[in-house]
Amino acid sequence: MSRRLLAAMTGALAQLPPITLDEVLAEAELQTRVDRKYLVPIATFVELVTRLRDRFAVLEIDGQRSFRYESVYFDTPSLGLYRQHVQRRRYRYKVRTRSYLDSGECSFEVKLKGNRSETVKSRMPYSLADRARLTEPAWEFLAEQLRMAYGVGIVDRLQPALTTTYRRSTLVDRVEHNRMTCDIDLRFFDGRASVDVLPAAVLVESKTAGRAGAADLVLRELQVRPIQVSKYCVAAALLNPQLRANPWHRTLRQLTRSG
């Protein structure tokens, strides 16, 4: 991890007041939402936070404002879920466990693409020890989510496909109750190979109930445009260069360039 990048991000976030986890969940959980994603150079990120400091707060737990995450993604042996996303299928989904490494907590999550490009996330508590496998309760939860959302069952058994790790800070708009996550130090690996990305930028995700929020408007003023990116899909493409990855060619170049 770039110490300079972390130091610059830490300095920018020091401008913001703290918010507790309970307040984040009460004000801006946004399980059904529209996500807009941006690759933001660190100097631009500092300016973004400076412009938002009068209305945004940052999640703080035990004095920390940056937290280590790990996600294990599951797919079919032929990466069928990845291919659904490449083909832009109307009904597509991701399956993962998400571990909060600083606290030792874990959840099992299903992310569904809903109507009007909404992302609908459902989750259940999960054992950290089971994060690299799907238990029977997880299978039942997944099957129920697919039945309710799409009217279909599980076609194939899923297996661990790859793991992503990163460091995240979470910001909350105290006026509109939107959320913004800020990720650095991304690493993808699958047991055969690993890739480190984002050498000099922050992956910012604006999560709103619909229309663009204050962060999106400021990023537009700073001439930063949304990009198409899915951590799972770009990780799969980088770790498996033979895969078709048309929707993310520009993003893949941006994620891996040095500087």
General form: globular
| N-to-C span | 13 Å
Structural class per helix/strand content?
Answer: alpha+beta
User: Would you identify the regions where 5 or more consecutive residues have pLDDT less than 50?
Assistant: none
Radius of gyration: 18 Å
Strand order of the largest sheet: 2-7-6-5-4-8-9-11
Helix and strand string, N-terminal first? HEHEHEEHEEEHEEEEHHH
Query: How large a portion of the residues is in β-strands, by DSSP E?
Result: 25-35%
Helix content: 25-40%
Number of extended strands? 11
For the largest beta-sheet, the strand count, sense and barrel status come to: 8 strands, antiparallel, barrel
* Number of helices in the DSSP assignment: 8
| Mean pLDDT across all amino acids | 90
Structure commentary:
The protein is of the alpha+beta class and 259 residues long. 30% of the residues lie in helices and 34% in strands. An eight-stranded antiparallel barrel has the order 2-7-6-5-4-8-9-11, surrounded by six helices. The longest helix is centred in the middle third of the chain and has 15 residues.
Task: Describe what is shown at a glance.
The protein has 259 residues and is an alpha+beta fold. The protein is 30% helix and 34% strand.
Which features does this protein show?
8-stranded antiparallel β-barrel; 259 residues; 8 helices; 11 strands; alpha+beta
Topology record:
Blueprint: H1 3-13, E1 18-19, H2 21-28, E2 32-41, H3 42-52, E3 56-59, E4 67-75, H4 80-86, E5 93-100, E6 105-113, E7 119-125, H5 136-150, E8 159-173, E9 179-189, E10 194-197, E11 201-208, H6 214-221, H7 231-239, H8 249-256
Parallel strand pairs: 1-3
Antiparallel strand pairs: 2-7, 2-11, 3-8, 4-5, 4-8, 5-6, 6-7, 8-9, 9-10, 9-11
Helix pairs in contact: 1-3
